[in-house]
Amino acid sequence: MAKKAIISILGGGGMMGQGVIRDLLSDRSIVEIGEVRVFDSDRSRMTALRDELGDVRLTLHDLDVADPAALARALTGSDICVNSVPTLAGHQMAIFEAALGARVDYVDLGGLGTYTVKQLQWQQRFRDAGVVAVLGVGADPGMSNVICRAVADELDEIDSINLYWAATLTGDENPILVPPYSVSTVLAEYAHPCLQFLDGRHVECAPQTGTETIDLPPPWGRCEFMYSIHSEQLTVPLADGIREKGIKEFTWKLHLPNREHEAWVGLVKAGFGDFDRTVDINGVAVRPLDVLNAVIQRNIAENQERIPQQKSHEIHFAVGRGRVGGKPAMARCQVIVRPNAMYEGYVDAATSMNASIAVQLMLSEQRRPGVYAPEAYFNAVSYFREAEKREFDITMTRDIG
């Protein structure tokens, strides 16, 4: 009888961690799970999740990830560690190193690429220890990297791959600002310079530049995209099987719903983009991020009755241009995530479900020790098979000549 997997979820009481757990324990799972160990500093959130799901495989553990000894104990005996602690909380490298020390496979949700390049430099150490790490396994990054791999595989030679993500909301306009994900992540996307791969090299670009307008099908319509800080452009153009095809350009661009976009632009104009540098208020040093988070969460909590029912629609797509058999060619891979009853209970189903897919494929397929970005580790066919089980609408097209 095969051993049932033991999975440790760090930050498992948070929005993304809870979503990963929901999918792992669903009837979509392709691995036998013996235990999901949930680690968080907030016991009430973990307890609420356990009570809701009522699954005996869930065990709850208090954890301060800033305590190295506690972190090491948390990973002992696990088959894989899912790091869903927010990237900008500053614990990414400590958790990554702890997984290596415990000889436990590792995934994180990556995000902005803040640590990606540094983590990839640990390739040989993980390989020598027989440990697998895959970085950035949510929707963007994560599924988006696999989309780019699928596009690259359709072309013999590559001139460019351009990657896009757009979200829109249907329903009554929300008078309350509800962040689509971590406030620090959104602010970084709008306020920090980013690297894009242009003319065969990485180039630093100013925030909110590279604007491009694209007409998409309803409900998105005409969308204006902009460059943003992310990890895909740091890894995809350098990946084996892509780099050798001559790629000269790789970009990642973002579009948030128009009114929300205006709100984040306004906050950056007000100075919240510099969210970690403290300001002095009556002799007390305060981080702008802490103030903004507290105000936003208070506003949401006190105005629940004013928040309308809205449905989120996401489109992720990559367009590759190059040649096939010497003829000009264009390949496009697109994934649409529409509202679905399956996603009830999830804050961001696409991110959480894709992280769960990555974990399950790592546990069920042949292991390859080392440190990888998703486009270098996962097979697009098997990955998309799992995505389609979660009602993600995937299309792949190629035009030659």
Automatic annotation (TrEMBL):
<protein>
    <submittedName>
        <fullName>Saccharopine dehydrogenase NADP-binding domain-containing protein</fullName>
    </submittedName>
</protein>
<dbReference type="Pfam" id="PF03435">
    <property type="entry name" value="Sacchrp_dh_NADP"/>
</dbReference>
<dbReference type="InterPro" id="IPR005097">
    <property type="entry name" value="Sacchrp_dh_NADP-bd"/>
</dbReference>
<feature type="domain" description="Saccharopine dehydrogenase NADP binding">
    <location>
        <begin position="8"/>
        <end position="134"/>
    </location>
</feature>
